[in-house]
Backbone:
């Protein structure tokens, strides 16, 4: 699955719209994921996962910053995300199924905040982009 | 078997009351066909699906989306027995339509995204959770008679 020039354009435009809200959306997507898909909480036993948690906010910012970096380097995700890929493979070892769940919650978050920009074409490009990021993050698992 | 609390049922029914079934159905099915183009394999006779705008404007897509969501509306009246409600449709999707049940999960998630888009802030994480349970329950029920 390859990101076309149109996909890359859509993703960059969408991320521009996100702008400074990145960290908030990251935290919101995490909260949505923890609530809708409780098994995802098993990776955060050390976190306070209650609404408004400072730890979830901080982690949301981490996720958003990483995605922003990925958007900026969409032509070479493997290089841009290499360190995160190592981290997920050797330390975090999050089961690959969970990347789809977070990706879905990111799409829900974006759709709810930016309905006008969230056209079917942009939606498709973002879905592909999150899948590509997920693939890189799980690429060194075995 | 999925069990809904009284609160979850109330959340689902309340939001459903405000949904335009025809619009939402067309949009959810359309987005499924655009975002996951391989799902078009079930709709060879639908005509032009060659671009996002062709899909979203296709009258057969809209009509079929409405059919699917109308069926969901019936299920919402019978949340305690989704398997019973969808028994015949499950057999149909297995024996005649030959649809991989994975597609029910994909469509369910597209519906959740369409609801988020329409309802914005009102589609809180708690509301989403109830709806994720709903679409998961429907997907399980539709797959239940597969053999």
Residues:
């Amino acid at each position: 699955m390859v990101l076309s020039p149109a996909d890359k354009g859509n993703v960059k435009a969408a991320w521009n719209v996100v702008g400074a809200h990145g960290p908030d959306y990251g935290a919101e997507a995490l909260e949505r994921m923890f609530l809708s898909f409780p098994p995802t909480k098993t990776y955060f036993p050390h976190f306070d996962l209650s609404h408004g948690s400072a730890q979830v906010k901080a982690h949301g910012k981490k996720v958003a910053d990483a995605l922003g970096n990925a958007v900026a380097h969409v032509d070479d995700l493997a290089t841009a995300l290499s360190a995160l890929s190592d981290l997920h493979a050797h330390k975090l070892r999050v089961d690959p199924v969970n990347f789809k769940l977070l990706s879905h919650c990111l799409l829900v978050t974006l759709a709810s905040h930016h309905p006008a920009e969230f056209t079917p074409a942009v939606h498709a490009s973002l879905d592909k982009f999150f899948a590509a990021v997920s693939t890189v993050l799980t690429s060194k698992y075995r | 078997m999925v069990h809904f609390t009284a609160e979850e049922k109330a959340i689902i029914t309340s939001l459903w009351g405000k949904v335009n079934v025809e619009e939402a159905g067309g949009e959810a099915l359309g987005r499924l066909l655009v975002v996951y183009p391989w799902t078009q394999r079930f709709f060879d006779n639908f005509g032009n699906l060659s671009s996002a705008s062709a899909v979203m404007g296709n009258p057969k897509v809209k009509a079929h989306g409405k059919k699917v969501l109308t069926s969901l509306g019936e299920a919402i009246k019978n949340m305690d027995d989704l398997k019973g409600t969808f028994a015949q449709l499950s057999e149909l999707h297995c024996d005649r339509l030959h649809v991989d049940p994975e597609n029910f999960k994909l469509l369910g998630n597209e519906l959740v995204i369409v609801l988020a888009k329409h309802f914005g802030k009102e589609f809180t994480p708690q509301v989403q959770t109830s709806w994720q349970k709903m679409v998961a329950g429907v997907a399980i029920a539709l797959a239940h008679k597969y053999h």
Observations:
- Chain A touches chain B at residues 28, 31-32, 35-37, 104-105, 107-109, 111-113, 115, 118-121, 123-124, 127 (CB under 8 Å).
